[in-house]
Fold this protein.
Amino acid sequence: MIRHKLIKILFFLLILILPGIPFTNSSFTAQSTITGNVVSAGFWETEAPTKDPRLFLTLSKNKKSVSFTVTNIKEFVRLSFELTYDTNSAPQGVVGESDLDGQDSFSQKDIILGTCSSEDCVYQKGARNFNLKVTLQDSNGQTVSLEQMVIK
């Protein structure tokens, strides 16, 4: 009888309480053993699961440029991107690519929403509805695509 109560309490703790505790970058494994009327439990940290790539797109306050960062990309060797957006005159776009050398993140800063020659830039009027698609390629040729939109 005591043994069954102890088992129920242990399962309650393991199943209901432990999953609700926020552990960052860690996972825990639980094991319980029953010897006679004694229930013992052990917890140990296991290796954190692999992180998926994440994409962050930012529009400048003056709406003259955008920037983006991709994180958790150590396993990839190449990155390409396509940014499309609407303007008052016609849809526009910017494309780019880069080889990766094992870094965990990649940032492309200040992508101008317009055209520049020397030091003079002409910015697109009414730039809005930004869509960024980033494609990551690993050394085996497998690709992962990420996409983010900013509607302004």
Q: What stands out?
A: The chain has a mean pLDDT of 78. The longest strand covers residues 76-86. The chain is about 10% helix and 55% strand.
